[in-house]
Amino acid sequence: MDSDIPFASLAPLVFISNNYHVSAARMEAYLEINDLWEAIEEEYVVPELQVNQTLAQIKNRKEKKTRKSKVRATLIVDVSTVIFIRIMTIKSTFKFWNFLKEEYEGNEKIKGIQVLNSIRKFEMVKMKDSEIVKEYSNILLTIVNKVRLLGIEFPNSRLVQKVFVTVSKRFEAIISSLENTKDLSKVSLVEILRAF
């Protein structure tokens, strides 16, 4: 673990059971930045100290043990007391993570319903007259990223189309200018936001 960032310097966010995909993505990123994700991905056993081990073997064992302990501590801190009570006897970080996944991710049917609800919400949302384009695009991006976290492809072109079609009438001049100067099939959301 040659990380330049101290373990405690980046505080993880609390696991939110009703928003599993976002919480899991944040926890995974946190564990990766702290060089701890491998302790969850790989179900390895820290070997017992043997007689006549080399210094490198002793150091490797200590690093693996420390990594597993840090992951377990992180996961314990991240979950609510209610969840912790249910899983406090699980010693394996791999099993701990899989418990959270199995318990809160939901099966394919639930994920399918979540995707449909998110897409419906995407289709129904309209820009309010009081909103600026950046605020509106953030609302849309939140919905789109939730769909993507559920494993569904969502093309950026569809997001750009939505902004063009539903943006407030007060921005029609900017939209007309973009339509006349850009190839709308290739324009990105960033380019649209720069125009506003």
Question: What does this protein structure show overall?
Answer:
With 196 residues, the chain is mainly alpha-helical. The protein folds into 2 domains: 7-104, no CATH class; 108-195. It has helices at 20-33, 38-41, 55-78, 81-87, 93-104, 108-124, 133-149, 156-166, 172-181, 189-195. The protein is elongated, with a radius of gyration of 23 Å.
Mean pLDDT, to the nearest integer, reads: 81
User: Could you spell the SSE succession in H and E letters?
Assistant: HHHHHHHHHH
Counted by DSSP, the helix tally is 10
Task: Count structural domains.
Answer: 2
Strand proportion, as a percent range, falls in under 5%
- Helix and strand content put the structural class at mainly alpha
Question: What is the overall silhouette?
Answer: elongated
- How many β strands by DSSP? 0
List descriptors.
196 residues; mainly alpha; 2 domains
Helices and strands in order, then pairings?
Elements: H1 20-33, H2 38-41, H3 55-78, H4 81-87, H5 93-104, H6 108-124, H7 133-149, H8 156-166, H9 172-181, H10 189-195
Helix pairs in contact: 6-7
Question: Concise description?
Answer:
The protein has 196 residues and is an all-alpha fold. It has helices at 20-33, 38-41, 55-78, 81-87, 93-104, 108-124, 133-149, 156-166, 172-181, 189-195. The chain is built from 10 helices and no strands.
